[in-house]
Amino acid sequence: MAAVRAEVLIPRSLHSDIPTYVEFCNQAGEVARAWWLDFNGNPVCYGDISPGKHLRMNTYVTHPWVFRNAVNDAKLLVNLEDVYFPEPPVDEDGETVFRQVVITSPVYSLKDYCSMLIRKLVKEGDFKKLEIAESLKEDLKEAPSLEQELRQLNAAHNAKC
């Protein structure tokens, strides 16, 4: 019997057949960095969006987007999801519209929030001097990473399949 190989599905752009128009609205209260995932799943930066501001973008239906805090790379949500896949540009009346897409902060765990604050206030070389558990010192060394989170998304998707 032949072995069945699970296909690794990476969030990535598929094709550029159906153009669409989005307006990313930053309601996160922090500067959001926009990342388009290219045809290989590699993140491509499209700039920063200040709190309360927006970014209009011409994109395509199969082109995914993710957002991160521009200062510490912490994950932000887009329409309450980790990854945004644009919708067709036509509304229910058949009119072409810019789709409003809302960027927000997730509810971070207390541990994650404290880790972000410590990383902001303490130099990385001084983590070992903190009077906290060794496991927490190790966790502090693992700052948020877009590439790592994309790998986790892939693993979670593959686990569902």
TrEMBL record:
SUPFAM superfamilies: VHL. InterPro entries: VHL_alpha_dom, VHL_alpha_dom_sf, VHL_beta_dom, VHL_beta_dom_sf, VHL_sf, VHL_tumour_suppress_b/a_dom. Pathway: Protein modification; protein ubiquitination. The keyword Cell wall biogenesis/degradation does not apply. GO terms for biological process: regulation of gene expression; response to hypoxia. It holds the Pfam family VHL_C. Keywords: Cell membrane, Cytoplasm, Endoplasmic reticulum, Membrane, Nucleus, Ubl conjugation pathway. It is a peripheral membrane protein. One of its GO terms (cellular component) is endoplasmic reticulum. Belongs to the VHL family. This is von Hippel-Lindau disease tumor suppressor. It comes from Erpetoichthys calabaricus (Rope fish).
